[in-house]
């Protein structure tokens, strides 16, 4: 009667603010989202619960941990619930890994927030982490669990190729993004320029200079995230002043806080291309969204079926 082991299934669930993306992922995966109920107390405390059995299954929890902190807390609670419900494997699918800018101590008496989040995820029950375009690659080393670090370049590069831009030039808006810019330029066989910026404080740029020549070129700025859009807008203006024919930008994670939308609308940017790792707060004629659902669905399927996923790590 029990001679054959029961088949191991997989189920996909989502935190409340990532349902739209999770539904796309589930559709590409060939399934539907599992049911989660979120109950609230009068003081704002909340409790998620799985409304179906997950015993012995591989659970994928889709949740981008962008502000506010409720998104991270909801993911932690769902991880704990899945662990206590005897899920076989629990993968935290985090298209956007929040708190990643705190990846080191850049001055005395500050936390390393990314390491703290890694510890919390593991303590809550995550047996695997799946994310995309971390702000700093070394964050993978903060985990004692497998980390699948995917690249949005597999989404952006085909789109950039379809534009057939003459005299293409890839640009990094800061020194930290030079590795990413060189990877794009190698694939597209283009020139590279780099912006050098100095900040007064977080989100406030004091000076910006350009290393390289953009005169007569179509420039594409490449970054992992866009927050206030101050850097991208200033870089785009600098490129135009130095003779660029057009300036576009690709940024994986559209945080877009403060007056970012207004800045982008009034900027020299032709368009800003982003993924749906974070839902847009409002539409914009200058922002084009490319979905990362197929990328995640493909990797999730391969992970569940123990297939190689190394091809997805090539920039």
From TrEMBL:
Its EC number is 2.7.6.1. It catalyses: D-ribose 5-phosphate + ATP = 5-phospho-alpha-D-ribose 1-diphosphate + AMP + H(+). GO terms for biological process: 5-phosphoribose 1-diphosphate biosynthetic process; purine nucleotide biosynthetic process; ribonucleoside monophosphate biosynthetic process. It comes from the Bacteria. Keywords: ATP-binding, Cytoplasm, Kinase, Magnesium, Metal-binding, Nucleotide biosynthesis, Nucleotide-binding, Transferase. The keyword ATP-binding applies. One of its GO terms (molecular function) is ribose phosphate diphosphokinase activity. Residues 11-125 form the Ribose-phosphate pyrophosphokinase N-terminal domain. One of its GO terms (cellular component) is ribose phosphate diphosphokinase complex. The keyword ATP-binding applies. This is ribose-phosphate diphosphokinase. It comes from Capnocytophaga leadbetteri.
